[in-house]
Amino acid sequence: MPSVLIVDDDRKIRLTLSIFLERRGYRVRDVASVKAALTALKEFRADIVLSDLKMEGESGIELIAALRADYAAIPVIIMTAFASVEKAVEAIKMGAADFIVKPFAPAEIEQLLARTVRIQGLEAENRNLRAVLGQNDILTRSEPLRRILAMAERFAKSEATVLVLGESGTGKSMIARRIHAASPRSQGPFVEVNCASLAETLLESELFGHCKGAFTGALKDKIGRLEAADGGTLFLDEVSELSPEGQAKLLRFLQDKVFERVGDLTTRAVDTRVIAATNRNLRDLVSGKGFREDLYYRLNVAEISMPPLRQRRDDLPVLVERFLAQAAARNGLSSIPVLDDEVNAQFARYNWPGNVRELQNVIERCVILAGAGRITMEHLPDRLLTYPAS
Ligand SMILES: Nc1ncnc2c1ncn2[C@@H]1O[C@H](COP(=O)(O)OP(=O)(O)O)[C@@H](O)[C@H]1O
Ligand SMILES: [Mg+2]
Q: How far apart are CA 153 and CA 151, in angstroms?
């Protein structure tokens, strides 16, 4: 059953609602102020917040604003007296999911809660559906990649940590999303962290969260991506870039499913599955002491190696067709451009160091230059024209 955080300065209302909802099987926490609500949310994983609109000295609108910053996914239902329905409308504009006018019958609030939970679920489902149908639609004609996709489907059904290897642009991120979408966790969040994108200390706090005062600039408690991915999947891209401390914390999490936020003593547990990716040779990094051996063996319980595009040239035609159609749509063309034979031949010869991403970019460029006309050699970037260098 969903969990509900009740925020109201009226003790009687809190009590009545808590008792009613608890009897109905909801997990309930109740607090009397916006500040208490924000504190409670650090411990209490609410699916819905049910908040009074006017409380002593503060308003539910402030709560919505604060929640939007840190807990954007939690819907807020506003409870309001009839006299301030206008305020409730303002609350909706601020991002509240719905409102209910006081006094209300318990059955009314129950219906509203059920509906809100349902809508949340549908939205999550829609997002996944879009992901599966659109971006996550992995095209291939090549036998090795097909076998890899079949293996990914099997890994998806398990809880195993997956390590995705492959050059940049080979589809590592895509397959990670695919595994999540095909897993029993597909309704949960898919959270991505690129370990190369942040400085060491920031990355640790981004991943594991921190508590107020953990370092200069840590003005309040913050949950990390690992916690944000609770019930879902955490995708650690460029995992080779993790600092030794980050590696140690990740290893502990993979072994025992527990961790601490930076600067915090409380040990926490979350139910997050990890998928990691790298374009480096991790085995080499391990022997060069750049990466912990024990972590490597924890990560590669299930390993997927994405082949470079030059080793699966039979994929070129389907990919080209797809990217041409996408680029045409993006650039507002009414018909899909055609490639000269010469261009196709050059595509088939080229070594594609940037793999599928490079192909996608080259086609986008061609479509911008050629419009709806034929794409000829003159539209290709120099590196393609001069390949192979003589
Ligand atoms: N087999 C494929 N079918 C369709 N699109 C693909 C395929 N492989 C990669 N792409 C696209 O190529 C781009 C690069 O893929 P991505 O997963 O980001 O690669 P990586 O994470 O390995 O760098 C993305 O836009 C992705 O949608
Ligand atoms: Mg990627």
A: 5
| Atom number, ligand 1, closest to the C-alpha of residue 171 | 17
| Ligand 1 binding pocket includes 138 (Cβ within 6 Å) | yes
* Dist. CA 171 → ligand 2 center (Å): 7
Parallel, antiparallel or unpaired: strands 222-223 and 209-210 = antiparallel
Please indicate, yes or no, whether residues 138 and 280 belong to a single structural domain of this protein. yes
Q: Specify whether 72 is located in the same domain as 143.
A: no
> What residue numbers bound the domain in which 334 lies?
312-385
Domain membership flag for residue 109: yes
* 178 CA → ligand 1 middle, Å: 11
Instruction: Classify residue 355: in a domain, yes or no.
Output: yes
Q: How confident is the model at residue 124 (pLDDT cuts 50, 70, 90)?
A: low
Whole-structure pTM over 0.85, yes or no?
Answer: no
The CA-based angle 75-76-78, given to 5 degrees, is 150
- CA 234 / ligand 1 centre spacing (Å): 18
- Residue where a domain stops, chosen among 74, 97, 125: 125
Mean pLDDT over the full length of the chain: 90
pLDDT in tens, 196-250: 988 888 899 999 999 999 888 888 999 999 999 999 999 999 999 999 999 999 9
